[in-house]
Amino acid sequence: MDNRFSARSSPQHGSSLVLASLGRRGEKNKDYLKYKIGVSGSAKDNCAPGAFKKAYEVGREVARQGAILVNGATTGIPQKAAEGAKHANGLVIGISPAVSKKEHLRKYKLPIDYCDLIMYTGMDYAGRNFLFIRSTDATIYICGRIGTLNEFTIAFEDNKPIGILTNTGGTTEEIADLLRVAKRGKGKIVWDDEPKRLVEKVIEMIRENENHH
After folding, report:
1. Which regions form coiled coils (predicted)?
2. pLDDT for the residue 202
3. What phi-psi label fits residue 4: left (phi over 0), alpha (psi between -120 and 50 degrees) or beta?
4. Are the beta carbons of 39 and 85 closer than 8 angstroms?
5. What is d(CA 20, CA 33) in angstroms, rounded to the nearest whole number?
């Protein structure tokens, strides 16, 4: 049975309203909610050697540590992270730029592999990126190109917890310099070159973020 679904979300409400229920086991206790951790990264290989292996390990750790992995329902680094999560019996949600499964496959030529659910936003890449970030409790960045940088700036402006997997190449290697010249502060960012430690740091930061709200 195909359990992927199509849902249209508006920026006013965001897709987080839809995705919050996917991590819910009970209504009375918020501790039953699973954390939703996004993985953002290059859809093509412009990365440092070993980046894809580390992306797989990040996905596996997200699942092992009890969180849901969310990605852009795309190729490359996000797909590799999803593969790692699925091999650890995790749940993966994809946020597509397409309006339907048909458009996702034919127009955008994007995969459906390793996703348990795909939300078809119909908002192209810019709208997808916004809804993707708004649907997460935190996001991890690995390697990256322009789209990854766009998703990073959305998360930074939203003051969301952010994890940077260092030494993976791409635009993520420029983030420290961008923050320095932008003079907007350090944000809620943790850095590490080891996937397990990075996921642990991100989850701890989500918990701290919850305690301050």
Report:
1. none
2. 98
3. beta
4. no
5. 8
Write out the CATH class of domain 36-92+136-211.
Answer: alpha beta
Kindly report the pTM of this predicted structure. Answer: 0.86
Nearest of 103, 137, 107 to residue 120 by alpha carbon? 103
pLDDT at 213 over 70: no
Locate the domains of the chain by residue range: 36-92+136-211
Contacts of 122 (CB under 8 A, 6+ apart): 8, 97, 98, 99, 100
pLDDT of amino acid 3: 43
Unique residue bearing structure tokens 């990605």: 71
CA distances (Å), 128 to each of 166, 174, 194, in order?
A: 25, 23, 28
Average pLDDT, integer, range 102-131: 98
119 strand-pairing partners? 95
Average pLDDT over all residues of the chain: 90
Q: Three-class SS of residue 70? A: strand
Instruction: Compute the average pLDDT of residues 99-127.
Output: 98
CB 35 within 8 A of CB 137: yes
